[in-house]
Write a structure and sequence with these properties.
Aspartate Aminotransferase, domain 1, 7-stranded mixed β-sheet, single chain, 450 residues, binds D-serine, Aspartate Aminotransferase, domain 2, alpha/beta
């Protein structure tokens, strides 16, 4: 299979950058838990002629001509979403997770109405009402938090819900390693008459594959991205459950109107085709094995990291995601660790930990996960090796301090950056990681831009 080889002739500069990115992905370990590697088929759908098409509206109710095939593809995507997640309505047009979440608030709330979500710094998402997001500017936002053990403080959620009578409550997180508490949240939301929205962006592949409980019996609306554990193209979906329709028979139409014409113009038809392909893959029995293996790998990684002496938020994981707490030798080391792991060929992101002692930009944790490594065929035993490399990288950075003073911090990062580049232990790890990664080819047989 050869795709996009024309770029080499027409635009060598971009072709080179694309080749380099492919090599980076192939020779490293992508451990950002919100990333994954789509199939050849999904890549092809994304690179298809549908990128040329405008389709404002919904299937059979469009504002432009030439919709015969765009309609067919969107209907298939909707139908598959309904089957995969067992919901009564699906909208596959959101450009991604953030627009999907804003669209739900726009559909359910009036400006100034209250909603509740987990604090960003405790593992929540920006669009669940964090102070710098439009979801806090146009709506009143009441954040809830986690307890000392890193788990959601359900007593606080209930107390805040009774006090504030929110119109909507979010259950769903972006940096939270434990099961999402759909049932407990439903009891609270039902008690105060709020809509309950599950944001399953991180775990939608686990839900589809039966490796995490489904929110369907408990919530009214579900949002997700399509590019994380569900392993599709970058996009979003909003789904409505039977419980949602029972609460408000117009819910589906409110959601659809909020996306178009409320917030978006034409859907990205090539993405819709990619979503349809990915959902088709998620319907196959082997996807269940994949979802279970993601969690098995994450648990193995967690146990191995702990054996290596590393501290984990909540002491482990139930999902695809882990948060390493790096505060043992001082706060604010996430930046150093991310940078050093990058040099070792292991891509993660620095992240706040609950009760973050430093700052959001210089946080004290690292967030990592197993969806991409699992797609490449790695198993529990392989996670033991990965854990050893991560711990060895930590050994190289643990003595670097992150100063509180801004000027001193700049100098410290400069010194760290120049020293770490020359670190021979990291170079050795980089070579080992490269050889290991090559054993698990990313796109075997795919001659994309080589
Ligand atoms: N949800 C974020 C992530 O998990 O990477 C992106 O918005």
């Amino acid at each position: 299979m050869v795709l996009m080889n024309d770029i080499e002739n027409s635009d060598p500069e971009i072709a080179q950058a694309l080749k380099d990115e492919l090599k980076r992905q192939e020779e490293g370990l992508e451990m950002i838990p919100s990333e994954n590697n789509v199939s050849h088929a999904t890549l092809q759908a994304m690179g298809s002629v549908l990128t040329n098409k405008y389709s404002e509206g919904y299937p059979r109710k469009r504002y432009y001509g030439g919709q015969e095939f765009a309609d067919k593809i969107e209907e298939i995507a909707i139908d598959r979403a309904k089957k995969v997640f067992n919901v009564v309505h699906a909208n596959v047009q959101p450009y991604s997770g953030s627009p999907a979440n804003f669209a739900v608030l726009n559909a359910l709330l009036e400006p100034g109405d209250c909603h509740m979500g987990l604090k960003l710094t405790d593992g929540g998402h920006l669009t669940h009402g964090w102070k710098v997001s439009a979801t806090a500017k146009y709506f009143k936002s009441v954040p809830y938090s986690v307890k000392k053990d890193g788990r959601v403080d359900l007593e606080e959620v209930r107390r805040l819900a009774i006090e504030n009578k929110p119109k909507a409550i979010w259950v769903g997180y972006t940096a939270y390693p434990r099961k999402f508490e759909f049932k407990e949240f439903a009891e609270i939301a039902d008690e105060v008459g709020a809509y309950l929205i599950a944001d399953i962006a991180h775990i939608s592949g686990l839900v589809a594959g039966g490796a995490h409980e489904s929110p369907v019996p408990y919530v009214h609306v579900i949002t997700t991205t399509t590019h994380k554990t569900i392993r599709g193209p970058r996009g979003g979906m909003i789904m409505v459950t039977q419980k949602g329709i029972d609460k408000d028979p117009d819910l589906a139409s409110k959601i659809d109107k909020s996306i178009f014409p409320g917030l978006q113009g034409g859907p990205h038809d090539h993405t819709t085709a990619g979503i349809a392909v990915a959902l088709g893959e998620a319907m196959k029995p082997e996807f269940k094995d994949y979802a279970k293996q993601i969690v098995a790998n994450a648990k193995s990684l967690a146990e191995s990291l702990k054996k290596e002496g590393m501290k984990l938020v909540t002491d482990g994981t139930d999902t695809h995601l882990l948060l390493i707490d790096l505060t043992e030798n001082g706060a604010g080391k996430g930046q150093y660790m991310q940078q050093a792991l990058d040099l070792a060929g292991i891509t993660v992101n620095k992240n706040t930990i609950p009760f973050e002692p430093f700052s959001a930009f210089y946080p004290s944790g690292i967030r990592l996960g197993t969806p991409s490594l699992t797609t490449r065929g790695m198993k529990e035993k392989d996670m033991e090796k990965v854990a050893k490399w991560i711990a060895a990288v930590y050994d190289e950075i643990r003595t670097y301090d992150m100063p509180n003073d801004k000027d001193e911090r700049k100098e410290a990062i400069k010194k760290f950056s120049s020293e770490i580049k020359e670190n021979t232990n990291l170079r050795k790890i980089r070579e080992e990681v490269r050889e290991f990664a090559k054993e698990f080819p990313l796109y075997p047989g795919f001659e994309i831009m080589r």
